[in-house]
Design goal:
Blueprint lengths: L1 E5 L5 E4 L5 E4 L2 H6 L13 E3 L3 H6 L12 E3 L2 H6 L12 E6 L5 H9 L14 E7 L2 H10 L23 H17 L4 E6 L5 H17 L5 E7 L2 H13 L6 E5 L5 H10 L3 E7 L4 H9 L8 E7 L22 H5 L6 E10 L6 E9 L7
Parallel strand pairs: 3-7, 4-5, 4-6, 6-7, 8-9, 8-11, 9-10, 11-12
Antiparallel strand pairs: 1-2, 2-3, 12-14, 13-14
Helix pairs in contact: 6-7
Length: about 375
């Protein structure tokens, strides 16, 4: 890291690489003003890199109605990979609090590297735009602005916890509210399946929303959000996330080959209260046809999907995913049709935030009790 200039005694702009710059700021400067870069106009979310023990002993508190949360992500757990999925997307600016015992060179290698150390493939660095170094002065500033552990200021203690990552847009804006409404209107157990759950963030989001609603309304209904994946690494990444997000009591990871439909058939039978199956960026056409036409699902069960899709009359021009792993515009409509007791309740095209690729956001509801064998 090279210092470019200084705007005050304690505020410095430093050059990380040919494409990235960062500011060293005090906690007070982070709290009171935005970064000087023209690209940043609001106070940045702050990632506290201190260990769990240090954070538990001396937490920085999030003020009420705060749009820029303070989130604890211990640096050792980021390096190990246990909590790296909780970092913001790589197009989001944020600040970091660097503990006194962490080497700045390790920070630089983790956050600003443009090449993966394991695969040697190029990657986008995270957009860390401000760095705060832990010090006595920092804790004095925390006291002055009312976010230190002994402050009398009102702080947010609600559930769900603050987060920096975002779930899939369809899950957040369409499926989530739909499930909350179903939860409030029904009785008994409430089970949701994520097919191809990966790192488990969508599972976590839905579990948090449902659990928060259950606690708010003091509902007796049981909740279970289940992540299905064929990779052992999925559980290794998901379980720490769900524990840290306080939803390990209402989530479950299942290592399942999703091509083996007989296994899923047994799970459909055993999971009483299965109200929703959904898939995000996971395509298995045999599985889709089985869900639509043969799975013994109860009336009112929802199927939802967010996946890459060709727009009407348009060619697929992106390298990833390959065209055979992309849906045609009317493909889900033809599978989840009224002949098999489905009613389409949402079907829209949007563009993904990564490369502007078209994606379909699709939801259908099972409307009868008849089964088509």
């Amino acid at each position: 890291m090279q210092t470019e200039d200084s705007t005050s005694v304690s505020r410095k702009r430093i050059k990380i690489s040919n494409i990235a710059c960062c500011e060293i700021v005090t906690l007070e400067q982070w709290h009171d003003s935005s970064a000087e870069s023209d690209e940043v106009v609001n106070r940045l979310p702050l990632v506290d890199l201190r260990t769990e023990e240090e954070y538990s002993r001396k937490p920085l508190k999030c003020p009420l109605n705060e749009n820029a949360p303070i989130v604890s992500l211990p640096f050792d757990q980021l390096i190990s990979g246990d909590r790296s999925c909780e970092l913001p997307p790589r197009n989001v600016h944020f600040a970091i609090l660097i503990p006194a015992n962490v080497n700045v060179e390790d920070i630089e290698r983790f956050f600003f590297a443009t090449e993966s150390s394991s695969t040697l493939q190029s990657r986008k660095p995270w957009l860390v735009r401000q760095m705060i170094f832990e010090s006595r002065e920092m804790w004095q500033h925390a006291k002055e602005i009312g976010i230190d552990p002994n402050s009398d200021e009102d702080v947010e203690h609600s559930f769900p916890l603050p987060r920096l990552w975002k779930p899939d847009e369809m899950v957040e804006n369409i499926l989530g509210p739909m499930l909350i409404e179903k939860f409030d209107r029904g009785q008994g157990s409430f089970v949701v399946w994520d097919l191809g759950s990966g790192a488990g963030r969508d599972v976590s989001f839905l579990a948090e929303q449902l659990k928060a609603n259950k606690l708010k309304n003091n509902s007796p209904r049981s909740i279970q959000v289940v992540g299905f994946d064929c990779h052992k690494g999925s559980a290794r990444r998901s379980l720490p996330l769900w524990k840290n997000r306080m939803v390990d009591d209402v989530t479950q990871s299942r290592l399942v080959n999703l091509k083996k439909l007989e296994v899923l058939e047994k799970d459909v039978h055993s999971d009483k209260g299965l109200i929703c199956l959904y898939a995000v960026r996971f395509l298995n056409r045999t599985l889709l046809n089985w869900i639509a036409k043969k799975a013994k699902l109860m009336s009112g069960c929802i199927f939802a999907m967010s996946h890459f899709c060709k727009e009407n009359g348009q060619e697929w021009t992106w390298d990833h995913p390959k065209e055979n792993n992309v849906l045609s515009r009317e493909e889900l409509n033809s599978i989840f049709c009224s002949d098999y007791g489905w009613k389409i309740i949402h079907d829209d095209i949007c563009l993904d935030g990564d490369h502007g690729r078209p994606m379909v956001h699709f939801c259908a509801e099972k409307r009868d009790l008849m089964r088509n064998e």
